[in-house]
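Translate sequence into structure tokens.
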Amino acid sequence: MNDQTAPTRETTEWLTVRTADGLMRVYAARPAGRTDRAVIVLQEAFGVNEHIQDIARRYAARGILALAPDLFHRNGVGTLTYDQHAEAMPLIGAIGPDAIVTDIEAVLAHLGDQEAIEVSRTAVNGFCFGGRAAFTAATGIGGLAATVVFYGPGIAAGPHAVVDRAKNIDAPMLLHVGAEDPTIPAEQVEAIETALTTAGVDFESHVYTGAGHAFACDARPNMYDANSAHTAWQRTHAFLDIHLPPGV
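Result follows.
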């Protein structure tokens, strides 16, 4: 942070970041004290909604600057409700790898220019569509501290699959998927793990028995699996404590 006095509690605000494809809103959650590390939180298929904002605030409470870019900025949709799944599918289908890399690079440029936080002190954490986006960012941007993927469909199959780009990943990666997630069947999990292993990526992959898609989303009680979510977040924080430690 560039100000002379650190805040006494976490604060939030909406920023505007310029990308190669226009202006993009970014939700920012700032920790109570100065920090030299950041996490870019990537949205589900429903935009930077209250759940994604809450995840950003949780990171801020742990002393990490969290930025959640609005990846729907090209179409101006903003957010959708969780029952608007049909409306969400064409929106995320329109966001290919190049657009994702463009947006994350813009956030990283903002972090470097305005927050004095380097790429090497920044992790990316994505959920659902954002999980695919996080994996994609890791294949297109070098030098990240770490990548965390929560149940990201479309990585190993579909029009924007990027599993064949795993050889470009140079940051540690942590993946979480529910064993009962129909959007990421076992053969796709195996394909991702095989590609990462072949590429020599430092990664952990965890499959949660009995859990389905969006099992860590406590805003969706019908999908939330408290035990699996608790374990996944414990693993995430431990992973980031290693690869994005404080005070370096």
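Note: The first helix runs from residue 50 to 61.
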